[in-house]
Design goal:
The chain is an all-alpha fold. It is built from twelve helices and no strands. It has helices at about 15-25, 30-40, 50-60, 65-80, 90, 95-100, 105-120, 135-140, 150-160, 170-180, 190-195, 205-215. It is elongated and about 55 Å long.
Length: about 220
Amino acid sequence: MTTTTLPAPVRLTPEMCATATRQLTRRDPALGRVIRAYGPCTLGLRTRRDSFSALVRAIVFQQLSTGAATTIYGRVLQTMNVRACPPPAIWLARPDGALRAAGLSGQKARYILDLCRHVSDGTLDMRRLHRMGDEDVIATLTQVKGVGRWTAEMFLMFHLQRPDVLPLGDLGVAQGFARVYGDGVRLTTDEMTARAEAWRPWRSIGSWYMWRALEL
């Protein structure tokens, strides 16, 4: 039997982002105005953390402002006397009360510890994620408590740096669509999906500019 080796999924680079913005500007005049007003997309410039620490941060940052989440995350690391995210065994050895005392909610502490157990017992192999397709990554990660589709999509965009993610469950992206395409009126999921068809295979970049549209 012949085994077919699938190509590795594409990861964004600065050069790809530059190509994408040129193509999107031509295809979508409304998006093009946002691109010209804001400037280059920086998705492909981000430094990659290891996958485990990226997921831990994603859980901590759920439903919090960047400033508040950064403060809480820093305090949690201080309680473990580390400067960077420790391995799962260190988290599992830490009492829940110590994590909550640092500002982490009991719910998020349980989510992170469930992630640690999945990694420790081998049911979640972090090394395989970068070789999986987008939907397979989402299906794998959402087996962990507290990791929903939104968290998995953020992981795809900002950690794995996949080029064609469309996170329609993100409030900021939806608000960006409303500002750019709806004169402030919220679009339906179907309407946003249809608008974003012109962005393929660069829907991550288009989505990134929906966030930026709110800053203009």
